[in-house]
């Protein structure tokens, strides 16, 4: 018989960014909150302490801070008629686990979406007519606007100590920032980080090409900082261990360093780690959740009753929980009905590596996760699909989160993978190369979705989440167009050699190569319960006391990293719960 | 060695290295027909015996491993090879970790064939990929070269066989030659470049060769320096300085 815990006001599934934000906001409001985290507890001390944290073998090969796929993973197939096979070893994307989740091992790139990103379908149809969009492209508008979300995006940046340069404040363009961005109310909390060589040269090349380069907003503190919660950050020391690693220095914003310290220890809060949530429990009518069932640290089935269930797991696992719990109707790609699993999208990442002679001190072992330079001249409404050939947009950036030799030393074209010639090359190029990346949007399609796998099960007996995804022509054209622009820009810098990787016509999605952890969609927010899983407050249309803030809510992925928007949506969701839901529980938007 | 002038650490390395003609050191010992694993099989370049005795690999596997990593990262004028940096020791130790036994891989069936872009879909964990692959590779060599195993071949033949495996041209009964090769190469690089505390990269030899400062993890004072090479030699996780 299951253990039944005392009922709480809210149970949170997952202790990453959204879980931490919801826990802070709701305990502020006096609610009793329990957070269930499947992984271990983690904090800067002792888990991210130097020197052990910077062990490349354990961090980037054993993936000590990331999710092990042994217990839970997804299956992947390219088309709706294919048989999916498990994502057995981590490659393409890297979900986190443990307290902090992916928010502890991200790099710190902290973008806001562009205003036009929220209204993508409307903008495209108004500007170019309905015929422009391929019939199977299922992109939708977000049900909120940039202006509505601005205060939440702003607050998240101040919680994170984001280091950047505003481009537009109260409608006034600012020198040195991004002139294409949405208007903000104030400057970033901290100035930009210093430029390593690759980003310094990026400004030169961008200027030559006529692009408007600006510092990437980075939640890697450029100065000592105390956030609005009283959490302290130290200036980033450029250690070179951001992606895959927890921050040894209280410099990279994370739930662990920036939010949890003020929530832990509150009398109305409890963190339970090694607590694997199995399902959301629903009342008989399936319109209300009664709590969740989980396995505690001793493997005992335990029920946590709650008035509110907040799904704050990684985007994929939020969708998985909704599907295994019977929340809403699963999406069917044939009839195009149902909403849970609909509009899965990814990110279109491509890289160009440049090699120089020994006089160019690129020092790729130096790293400041999110810092560097980029431009938006090919993103958002600056991209005209009738000229570029694709819908969406992207950014080219110079970013150097830090590289060590175990993570791989890229070698110029024609160099073999081993032997003396390889050795000679890695020795010559290691300190004298850097890369620019193209990070592009990814549209959503009728045939890209998430569902339950009919065959494979996780360690708890549940069907694995099945991902049906492949590159579409639009994204391949985007890759070719944007990488072409990046290569033109790189040529200005006159490297000895260059290696680029635009996608080829007909190229399939390859799960073995790291691309980006920016998996999006599957339980999207929208205006219509027939075409979205969540309303504008991230509330389930079907089960009104379930909220699912996260990148699962994006109807498609824009050209940026998702974390800024994810944090903003979490604050937006918390505000709606505090100011609207609690006084009058039930649907916040009438269907 | 165009950048020696900029790297004091590298200058020191070059001066201190004793270059041993190929075939006399490690490879020579291997060709000597030793049948037992252990000390004599991996003579260090200075001629000192390598005291490491494998506990995961058996004698045949150890011979294969030593011969193969010596081809993948040979000792040459560019810097130390895999043998002198203890890569076989690293791999032997690494095979006993939970990681090598598949602790973070999803290892449940059914096991289906899938195109390579879906990743490894076999049921063997890393340690068995290497072990099974070595046996298959040795058997294949024995068929092709009158009973000679991989370690018995001359260097040119070994390199040719490894290239064929890399290009997926060797058909083994129990495992894909390409997957075996990819994992062997990845483990060899891991052992060559990982922190010496894991058993390879002795004396931080690979870090000194490429100019990697190791685990210093503090470069704020160097981010904006453009006119000089980073001057400080490496440090490892145990605090040793290279």
How many beta strands in the DSSP annotation of chain A? Answer: 22
Order of helices and strands of chain B: HHHHHHHH
Helix content of chain B: 25-40%
Structural class of chain B: mainly alpha
Which residues of chain B sit in consecutive blocks of at least 5 with pLDDT less than 50? 1-47
Structural class of chain A: alpha/beta
Shape of chain B: globular
Percent in helix of chain A: 10-25%
* Low-pLDDT windows of residues of chain A: none
Rg result of chain B = 19 Å
Largest interface: A-B, 67 and 65 residues
CA-to-CA gap between the ends of chain A? 39 Å
Largest sheet of chain A: 8 strands, mixed
Structure description:
- The complex is a heterodimer of chains A (591) and B (242).
- By secondary structure, chain A is α/β, with parallel strands linked by helices.
- Chain A has a single domain (3-581), classed as 3-Layer(bba) Sandwich (FAD/NAD(P)-binding domain), CATH 3.50.50.60.
- Chain A has 14 helices and 22 strands.
- The model of chain A has no long low-confidence stretch (mean pLDDT 97).
- Chain B is mostly helical.
- Chain B has one domain (8-222).
- Helices cover 38% and strands 0% of the residues of chain B.
- Chain B contains eight helices and no strands.
- The interface between A and B is large, with 67 and 65 residues.
- Chain B: InterPro entries: Gluconate_2DH_su3, TAT_signal.
- Chain B: It comes from Massilia forsythiae.
- Chain B: This is Gluconate 2-dehydrogenase subunit 3 family protein.
- Chain A: InterPro entries: FAD/NAD-bd_sf (IPR036188), GMC_OxRdtase_N (IPR000172), GMC_OxRtase_C (IPR007867).
């Amino acid at each position: 018989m299951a253990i039944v815990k005392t009922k709480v006001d809210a149970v949170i599934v997952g202790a990453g960014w959204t879980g931490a934000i919801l826990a802070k906001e709701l305990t502020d409001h006096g609610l009793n909150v329990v957070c269930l985290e499947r992984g271990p507890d983690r904090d800067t001390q002792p888990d991210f302490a130097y020197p052990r944290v910077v062990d490349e073998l354990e961090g980037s090969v054993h993936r000590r801070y990331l999710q092990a796929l042994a217990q839970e993973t997804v299956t992947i197939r390219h088309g709706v008629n294919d048989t999916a096979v498990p994502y057995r070893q981590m490659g393409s994307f890297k979900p986190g686990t443990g307290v902090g989740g992916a928010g502890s091992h991200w790099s710190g790139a902290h973008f806001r979406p562009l205003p036009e990103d929220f209204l993508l379908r409307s903008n495209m149809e108004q500007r170019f007519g309905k015929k422009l969009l391929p019939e199977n492209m299922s992109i939708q508008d977000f049900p909120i606007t940039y202006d509505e979300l601005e205060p939440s995006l702003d607050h998240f940046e101040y919680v994170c100590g984001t280091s950047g340069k505003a481009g537009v404040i109260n409608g006034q363009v600012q020198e040195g920032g991004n002139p294409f961005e949405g208007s903000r109310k104030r400057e970033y909390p901290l100035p930009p980080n210093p430029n390593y060589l690759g980003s310094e040269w990026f400004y030169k090349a961008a200027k030559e090409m006529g692009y408007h380069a600006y510092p990437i907003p980075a939640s890697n503190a450029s100065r000592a900082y105390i956030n609005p919660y009283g959490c302290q950050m130290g200036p980033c020391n450029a250690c070179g261990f951001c992606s895959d690693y927890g921050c040894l220095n209280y410099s990279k914003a994370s739930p662990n360093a920036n939010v949890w310290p003020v929530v832990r220890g509150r009398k109305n809060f409890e963190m339970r780690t090694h607590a694997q949530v199995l399902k959301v429990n629903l009342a008989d009518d399936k319109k209300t959740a009664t709590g969740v069932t989980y396995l505690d640290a001793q493997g005992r089935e335990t029920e946590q009753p709650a008035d509110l269930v907040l799904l704050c797991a990684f985007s994929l696992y939020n969708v998985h929980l909704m599907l295994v719990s019977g929340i809403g109707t699963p999406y069917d790609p044939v009839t195009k009905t149902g909403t849970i699993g609909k509009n899965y999208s990814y990110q279109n990442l491509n890289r160009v590596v440049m090699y120089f002679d020994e006089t160019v001190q690129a020092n790729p072992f130096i790293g400041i996760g999110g810092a560097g330079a980029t431009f938006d001249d090919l993103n958002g409404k600056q991209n005209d699909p009738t000229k570029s050939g694709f819908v969406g947009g992207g950014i080219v950036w110079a970013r150097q989160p830090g590289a060590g030799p175990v993570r791989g030393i890229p070698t110029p074209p024609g160099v073999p993978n081993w032997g003396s010639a390889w050795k000679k090359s890695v020795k010559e190029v290691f300190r004298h190369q850097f890369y620019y990346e193209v990070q592009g949007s990814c549209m959503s399609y009728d045939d890209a979705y998430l569902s339950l796998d009919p065959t494979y099960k996780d360690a708890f007996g549940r069907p694995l989440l099945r991902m049906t995804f492949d590159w579409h022509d639009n994204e391949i054209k985007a890759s070719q167009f944007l990488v072409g622009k990046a290569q033109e820009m790189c040529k200005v810098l006159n490297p000895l050699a260059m290696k680029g990787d635009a996608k080829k016509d007909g190229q399939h999605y390859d799960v073995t190569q790291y691309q980006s952890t920016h998996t999006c969609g599957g339980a999207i927010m929208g205006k219509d319960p027939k075409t979205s899983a969540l309303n504008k407050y991230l509330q389930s249309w079907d089960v009104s006391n379930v909220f699912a803030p996260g990148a699962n809510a994006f109807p498609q992925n824009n050209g940026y990293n998702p974390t800024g928007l994810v944090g903003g949506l979490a604050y937006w969701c918390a505000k709606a719960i505090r100011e609207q839901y609690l006084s009058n529980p039930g649907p916040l938007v009438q269907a | 060695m165009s950048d020696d002038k900029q790297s004091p650490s590298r200058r020191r390395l070059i001066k201190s290295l004793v270059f041993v003609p190929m075939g006399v050191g490690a490879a020579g010992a291997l060709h000597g027909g030793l049948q037992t694993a252990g000390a004599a099989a991996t003579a260090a370049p200075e001629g000192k015996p390598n005291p490491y005795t494998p506990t995961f690999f058996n004698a045949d596997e150890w011979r294969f491993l030593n011969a193969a990593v010596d081809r993948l990262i040979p000792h040459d004028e560019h810097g130390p090879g895999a043998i002198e940096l203890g890569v076989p020791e690293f791999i032997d130790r690494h095979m006993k970790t939970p990681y090598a036994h598949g602790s973070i891989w999803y290892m449940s069936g059914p096991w289906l064939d899938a195109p390579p872009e879906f990743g490894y879909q076999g049921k063997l964990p890393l340690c068995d990929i290497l072990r099974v692959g070595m046996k298959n590779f040795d058997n294949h060599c024995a068929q092709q070269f009158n009973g000679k195993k991989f370690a018995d071949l001359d260097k040119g033949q070994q390199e040719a066989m490894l290239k064929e495996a890399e290009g997926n041209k060797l058909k083994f009964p129990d495992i894909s030659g390409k997957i075996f090769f990819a994992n062997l190469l990845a483990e060899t690089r891991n052992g060559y470049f990982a922190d010496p505390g894991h058993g390879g990269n002795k004396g931080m030899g690979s870090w000194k060769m490429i100019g990697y400062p190791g685990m210093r993890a503090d470069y704020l004072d160097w981010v904006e320096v453009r006119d000089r090479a980073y001057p400080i030699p490496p440090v490892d996780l145990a605090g040793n300085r290279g």
